[in-house]
Write a sequence for this structure.
């Protein structure tokens, strides 16, 4: 869906990217992570031609982006940034309708789409459609930003620190929301973040940048397991703990009912299981009955022995 082929970007004498070759397959949620100034935003902005490469080529849907008029390319790609960038004097509905209007959709179709998008990001259209951006919380404004980026149904979504400006609780909700939207829509998403936990939780593919070069890329478990000292330092010394958040608790559960043990949610991860064990001072947690009806549970010993 997106290919960076031998990309270098220089701004005057400064090298922002140096020989980057990467591909993002359709439906992937690819997270770019790296220290400040490592070139994450520059790499993202090449995709919608906000930055042009000094060397190399960027292909989107198999076509060199230089062959596509910039405005047309941008209308075909959703873009969400940290500061949200909503038009302050327009209502939420008009903000969400921006690209469909530019594309000349009929009014009735735009209205229906705005309602559909607000519902997708879990904002009640009756309550929010006529509000102005200043009447929204940071998390709500981010949701509107996502609804706007998805309104014209682009197959690619670029997100540059999309949750950077919201508090940790709203951030957690928005992450869960993004995972749900990604699963429901199958969009190809390229996302920049500083937050290692966010990167590991969201990514189907991780690309780690340092000084304009890719130092590791692949599935999160692969990168966490195989990365060198820099990757470990960047993603946190607690990589083993973070890796637990990638695995559903159900996967290690055994058919050993423990009716008195504290219960986990059906979609809980191994990290949730460990957290519940610590919180409840118990070494076994219960999982709700699977479809077969059999009760299951997970012990601390098994979690430690069988962890990925
Ligand atoms: N328009 C520009 N003009 C000059 N230098 C730039 C420009 N954009 C980026 N740079 C430089 O290129 C390098 C990479 O910047 P970039 O914004 O891609 O990094 P980043 O990894 O996204 O950083 P951060 O996490 O701090 O946002 C930096 O040294 C930055 O100063």
């Amino acid at each position: 869906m997106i290919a960076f082929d031998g990309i270098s970007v220089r701004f005057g004498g400064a090298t922002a990217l140096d020989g980057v070759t990467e591909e993002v397959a359709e439906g992937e949620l690819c997270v770019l992570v790296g220290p400040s100034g490592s070139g994450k935003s520059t790499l993202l902005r090449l995709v919608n031609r906000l930055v042009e490469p000094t060397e190399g080529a960027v292909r989107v849907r198999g076509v060199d982006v230089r062959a596509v008029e910039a405005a047309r390319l941008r209308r075909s790609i959703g873009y969400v940034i940290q500061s949200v960038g909503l038009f302050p004097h327009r209502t939420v509905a008009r903000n969400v309708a921006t690209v469909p209007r530019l594309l000349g959709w009929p009014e009735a179709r735009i209205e229906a789409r705005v309602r559909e998008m607000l519902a997708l990001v879990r904002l009640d259209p009756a309550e929010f459609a006529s509000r102005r951006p200043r009447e929204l919380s940071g998390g709500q404004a981010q949701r509107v930003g996502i609804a706007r980026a998805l309104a014209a149904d682009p197959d690619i979504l670029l997100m540059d620190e999309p949750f950077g400006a919201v508090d940790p609780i709203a951030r957690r909700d928005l992450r869960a929301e993004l995972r749900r939207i990604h699963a429901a829509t199958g969009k190809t998403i390229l996302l920049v973040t500083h937050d290692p936990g966010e990167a590991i939780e969201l990514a189907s593919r991780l690309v780690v940048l340092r000084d304009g070069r890719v130092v590791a890329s692949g599935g999160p478990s692969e990168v966490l397991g195989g990365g060198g000292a820099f990757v470990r330092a960047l993603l946190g010394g607690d990589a083993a703990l973070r890796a637990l958040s990638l695995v559903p608790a159900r996967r290690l559960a055994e058919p050993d009912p423990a009716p008195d043990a504290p219960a986990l949610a059906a979609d809980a991860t191994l990290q949730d299981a460990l957290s519940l064990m610590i919180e409840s001072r118990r070494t076994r947690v219960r999982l709700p009955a699977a479809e077969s009806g059999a009760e299951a549970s997970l012990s601390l010993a098994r979690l430690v022995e069988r962890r990925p």
About this structure: The radius of gyration is 21 Å. Residues 11, 14, 16, 34, 36-42, 194 surround adenosine-5'-triphosphate (CB under 6 Å). The chain has two domains: 2-244, 247-306.
